[in-house]
Amino acid sequence: MANTSRPVRRTALLASAAALLGLVGACGSESSTSTAPRPTQAPRTTTPDPGAATGAATTPAATAAPSGTAGSASASARTDGRCRTGELRAEVGRVDPGAGQRNFPIVLTNTSDRTCTVRGYPGAAFVDASGGQLGPDPVRAPSSPGTVTLTPGKSAWAGLSFSSPQISGARTATPAALLVTPPDEHDPIRVAWTAGEVPVGGDESSVKVTALEPGTGP
C-alpha cells in the first residue's frame, strides 16, 4: 500500500505558509496607511467685493467744492472802496466868520481799520430836539468833486455856510443837532449843534454846502 500522508502534509504546510504570508502583508499595509500624515489643504482666501455684497457699483469719492467762496464775498463787501456811515465820525468845526457869512467845516473821520473813500457832497439837515427838520435842505455850491482816500484816522471836510441872520433878516431857529449823511449813504450821523441860531425861512435863508476835500478845514 502506497504512503500518501507525506504529500498531503506537504501540501497543507505550503498552504499554511501562504496564508501566513498574506496575513503579514495585509497587516503591514494597514499600519503604513494609518500612521502616514495626510496632506492638509491650504484654506482658500478671497478678497470681498464691496459692490458685490450690496449689488451697487463702487463710485469715486466726490470732489470737495473750493473753499473760501463766502469769505470772498464778505471781503468784496468790505473792500469796495466807499466809506460806510458806521465807519465814520462826524464833527462840526469852529465857525469862521467873514463878509457877513458864517462858515463851518463839517469833518468826516475814518474810524475803521481799513482804507476807504468818500466822494462828493455830504447830506446835511438841521433838526430840533424831537428830530423834526428845520428849514430846507442845504444847496450844493458849484465845485468839481474828487475822490478823497481816507486811511484809518484820516479826515475829509466840507464847508457849510449861510448869511448871518442878523444881517440877512431871515427867520431863524436854534437847532438841537445837525444830521450829516456821508456821500452815497442813507443813514445820517447826529452831531450836536452848539453854534446858535440858523436861518430857516425868508429870502436870505439859503444854507450852502461844498464838496468834500482832504483835511479838517481851512
From TrEMBL:
Keywords: Signal. InterPro entries: DUF4232 (IPR025326). PROSITE patterns: PROKAR_LIPOPROTEIN. Pfam families: DUF4232. Residues 28-84 are annotated as: Disordered. Residues 28-78 have a biased composition (Low complexity). It comes from the Bacteria. Residues 1-26 form the signal peptide. Residues 83-211 form the DUF4232 domain. This is DUF4232 domain-containing protein.
